[in-house]
Design a protein that fits this description.
The chain is an alpha/beta fold. The strands form five sheets. It has a seven-stranded mixed beta sheet with strand order 14-15-16-13-12-17-18, with helices on both faces. The longest helix has 24 residues. It is globular. It starts with 11 loop residues before the first strand and ends in a 13-residue tail after the last strand. Bound molecules: NADP nicotinamide-adenine-dinucleotide phosphate (NAP). The site of NADP nicotinamide-adenine-dinucleotide phosphate (NAP) has 31 residues, from helix 8 and helix 9.
Length: 497
């Protein structure tokens, strides 16, 4: 494919060098306008091989592997500083590529910088452990990097998800090869530039865009890759897990969701309706934790639904950089078409579309991949629209009659990422929270995130945890040491302990 006339394709990063000489390019279409943004150099299997070897060599050097934690923390803090300095650039990369509204893009940069600061503080303070001896020795547990981590990210929130991975992986002392989603490669590339400028040794962090279907296997199966950290859809996650399993390397998987958002009749209904609206429509529904299945106790079902409809109608769907825009387009035209197909399928399954169910009529948005906030009702939890992840602004609302009925329906899904409960009864909140099969439970709130709290899913929503102190340990392997304090050998099976 040729390049856009007069515009050089965006290069990527291997070993501190900017790679421009590639046989093909990714052509970037702005989902808000349908116009070509730019082209990005696409890596090949040979680039993956070079990136992994480079990461291995750089991460093995004493300069990085032996770097004292407080020095590593200084670099991570510097990355955070540079992210804030270049926040407009990073936010713009994301906005142009996936159409997220400007405010959300900027906030993701700020939160991403906070993730680097958290990891800096954590790595400077996380210690090794002395374990209780059962003989005349000192035994201790130390934590070491895996070596080369393959980090593979999706297109919905590339800044946040890339920071979650690379901040923890670098804090833990690994080398990294980042493969960003083809729809959203440039914020990852700019984060690579920032890491270099902040003093990460060249080669420790490499960024290679390219179609996952072409270079994904080469990355995951490369003999020098010792860990995979993947965020994306469940099907690709399953394949990566199989490949990693054959190599006996860990694969942390952050996958899809179809999260139940539950409103009991005794809840603060106004706050619950506010939250239910944000939970599904923020980010145009392209959030793994979107509260996409709404369960409302039957006696307040109509009342709550009309409150949510009122709020959804007031949402401003607009160009991502328009002041006050709340929902941008879908991240791609293919994604918008998929959303449309799912809603059409729901219509044919006999559901009622309460609001939305179409593209906006505003002629300014006609060339973009826009779709209106949509609320579907009259379906059961068994229907396709209630079971399949849509990743769009589509809320599927269903009534429930009692707690047992609710828990049965809420857990009747292959996914188990997030959930929300609204009730004034704290004992019920506790019972339901413990019964839900989900990695995250929000009680009288929704979509609260903290870089200090572990994040991940149950069931087909994933394996392993990112964020929090556990999230740093995810990127380390455990080594146990025994140091004898005796002058004679007193180990072996013949000694009773
Ligand atoms: P995807 O199709 O699974 O792609 C994710 C990443 O995997 C992309 O970089 C993609 O590259 C790459 N990839 C594709 N095929 C591959 C292969 N065979 N080997 C290795 N890598 C491969 O997911 P998506 O459509 O980008 O993202 C949406 C999904 O992500 C949703 O299911 C959403 O729920 C999930 N998600 C989960 C979380 C979480 O934390 N649990 C957060 C955000 C999103 P290309 O772009 O080149 O295809």
């Amino acid at each position: 494919m040729s390049t856009v006339a007069g515009v050089k394709p965006v290069p990527f990063l291997i070993g501190g060098q900017w790679i421009q000489d590639t046989p093909s390019y990714i052509t970037h279409v702005n989902p808000a306008t349908g116009e070509v943004n730019y082209q990005v150099c696409a890596g090949t299997e040979a680039h993956i091989d070079a990136a992994v070897k480079t990461a291995h060599a750089a991460a093995s050097k004493a300069e990085w592997r032996g770097m004292l934690p407080h020095k590593r923390a200084e670099i991570l803090n510097k990355i955070a500083d540079l992210m804030i300095e270049r926040s407009d650039l990073l936010a713009r990369c994301q906005m142009l590529e996936n159409g997220k509204v400007w405010k959300e893009c900027k906030n993701q940069v700020i939160n991403g910088a906070a993730t680097f600061r958290y990891c800096a503080a954590a790595i400077e303070t996380l210690g090794s452990e002395i374990t209780p001896p059962r003989g005349n020795y000192l035994s201790m547990t130390v934590y070491e990097p895996w070596g080369v981590v393959a980090a593979i990210t999706p297109w919905n929130s590339p800044i946040t998800l890339t920071c979650n991975k690379i901040a923890a992986a670098l804090a833990a002392g690994n080398g990294v090869v980042l493969k960003p989603a083809s729809y959203t490669p440039t914020s990852g590339i700019e984060l690579g530039r920032i890491a270099l400028d902040a003093g990460v040794p060249p080669g420790v962090l490499n960024v290679v865009p390219g179609a996952g279907s072409k270079i994904g296997d080469a990355l995951v199966t490369h003999p020098l890759v010792r860990m995979v950290s993947f965020t994306g859809g469940t099907e690709v996650g399953r394949r990566i897990s199989e490949l990693a399993g054959r190599k006996v390397i860990p694969a942390v998987l952050e996958l899809g969701g179809k999260s139940p958002h539950i409103i009991f009749a005794d809840a603060n209904l106004k706050a619950a309706a506010d939250a239910a609206t944000v939970a599904i429509f923020e980010g145009t529904g392209q959030s793994c934790t979107a509260g996409s299945r709404l369960f409302v106790e039957r006696k307040v079902y109509d009342e709550v639904l009309s409150m949510i409809m009122e709020r959804a109608r007031a949402l401003r769907v607009d160009l991502p950089d328009a002041p006050g825009a709340q929902l941008g387009p879908s991240a791609s035209f293919a994604q918008r078409d998929f959303v449309e197909k799912m809603v059409e399928g729901a219509r044919q399954e006999g559901s009622e579309i309460l609001i939305g169910g179409s593209r906006p009529s505003d002629p300014r948005l006609a060339k973009g991949a826009f779709y209106l906030p949509t609320i579907v009702t009259g379906v059961t939890n068994k229907s396709t629209i209630a079971q399949q992840e849509i990743f769009g602004p589509v809320l599927c609302a269903m009534p429930f009659d009692n707690e047992d009925d609710l828990i049965q329906q809420a857990n009747d899904t292959t996914f188990g990422l997030a959930s929300g409960i609204w009730t004034a009864d704290y004992k019920r909140a506790w019972r339901v929270a413990r019964a839900l099969e989900a990695g995250m439970v929000w009680i009288n709130t929704y979509k609260q995130f903290s870089t200090a709290a572990p994040f991940g899913g149950f069931k087909d929503s994933g394996l392993g945890r990112e964020k929090g102190l556990q999230g740093i340990r995810t990127y380390q392997q455990v080594k146990t040491m025994f140091w004898s304090m005796s002058d004679t050998f007193d180990g072996g099976f013949s000694i009773a302990k």
